[in-house]
Amino acid sequence: MRTPVAFIVFNRPEKTARVLAEIAKAKPRKLFVIADGPRPNCLSDIAQCCAVRKIFDQVDWECEVLQNYSEVNLGCGRRPATGISWVFEHVEEAIILEDDSVPHPTFFRFCEELLEKYHDDWRVMMIGGFNMYPNRSPYSYRFSRMPACVGGWATWRRAWQYWDGQMALWPLLRDTPWLLDIVEDSRAVKSWQNILERAYTEASHADYWDYQWMFACWAQSGLAILPTTVNLLSNIGFGADATHTKSVNDKRANLPTSEMVFPLQHPPYMMRDRETDHIRLSGHLQRQGLYRQLYQRFSVAVLRALHHLVPIS
Predict the structure, then answer these.
(1) What whole-number distance in Å separates Cα of residue 38 and Cα of residue 43?
(2) Does 237 score more than 50 pLDDT?
(3) How far is CA 149 from the centre of its chain?
(4) pLDDT of residue 283
(5) Residues 81 and 163: beta-carbon distance below 8 Å
(6) Counting CB atoms within 10 angstroms of each CB, which of 34, 65, 205, 259 has the fewest?
(7) Backbone φ/ψ region at 30: left (φ over 0), alpha (ψ -120 to 50), beta
(8) Eight-state DSSP code of residue 272
(9) Which pLDDT score is estimated for 288?
(10) Are the C-beta atoms of residues 102 and 25 closer than 8 Å to each other?
(11) pLDDT tens digits for 55-70?
């Protein structure tokens, strides 16, 4: 495979080895390894991070391995973002995988062919492989206004240049109707305004980078390409050891993957799939509502306990 692969890792050697085994089948000529350092006061991280890095000594195909290893912990926000920026200092396009996303073997060819086809089409910002909502279609992929990185995706330097951790454009757009034009749902507008405002105010210490990427895509009126009839990525990272995705019962966890059929059937038009975008927005609102309910219940319980009104049950 000609397209470089960037692999973001941390402290999970078993998951890292599982994903690397799939990368090895594709045999990219260039592999960028982006590793975070151990967390302060977490002694187990030292051994686990070391074990992860040793895995890359096992790369046995013809491949240039470039390493960007942090000796300190940069976190879930700065480490991926700085690592991806480093990758695009060296190459113009890349397939990006995280250590908890197992790709179907056809994911790589899917990304590579579309990276080439849309290389100079600035309307397209990224190519994703995750698809929670497969449907019947004569075409292999669809266009979406909802970027879905979810552990495995591909993009170009020309698109990533718009990622801005400081979100400098947010104050210029915050009080305009542009977000309603994108999500077309007043409830979703309110939810996303809150998320983006938080990302803006937490810019210096945010432990995420993907909301900023979504904002960059939206601010440039960019489209994401997503598979239509199959899912090409299985996220195995849901669980107690995860930072954000702790529920093993999450609908996004451990979804099965299927083979992409080639040659790809390209849609003869470039229009967003509104129906699927609305379904994905509904799922986002449901998750946000659940998190909000849990947070409110927890807050009330803590306040009652502190005021000795009722014990926490």
Answers:
(1) 8
(2) yes
(3) 3
(4) 73
(5) yes
(6) 205
(7) beta
(8) B
(9) 66
(10) no
(11) 999 999 999 999 999 9
Query: Phi/psi at 89 (nearest 5 deg)?
Result: -75, -20
Q: For the chain, what's the residue count?
A: 313
The rounded distance, in Å, linking the Cα atoms of 276 and 144 is 8
Instruction: Decide if 191 contacts 179 (C-beta within 8 A).
Output: no
**In 3D, which of 6, 11, 58 has the Cα closest to residue 237?**
11
For residues 166 and 201, what is the distance between their CA atoms, to the nearest angstrom? 9
What pLDDT score was predicted for residue 246? 46
Distance CA 149, CA 244 (A): 15
Strand 141-144 and strand 64-69: the pairing is unpaired
Q: Which residue do the tokens 């397939």 mark?
A: 95
Cα-Cα-Cα-Cα torsion 227, 117, 151, 73, nearest 10 degrees, comes to -170
Give the CA distances from residue 36 to residues 7, 75, 276, 283, in Å, rounded to whole numbers and listed in that order.
Answer: 11, 7, 35, 31
Tokens describing residue 164:
């801005």
- Residue 153 has a CB neighbour count (10 Å cut-off) of 27
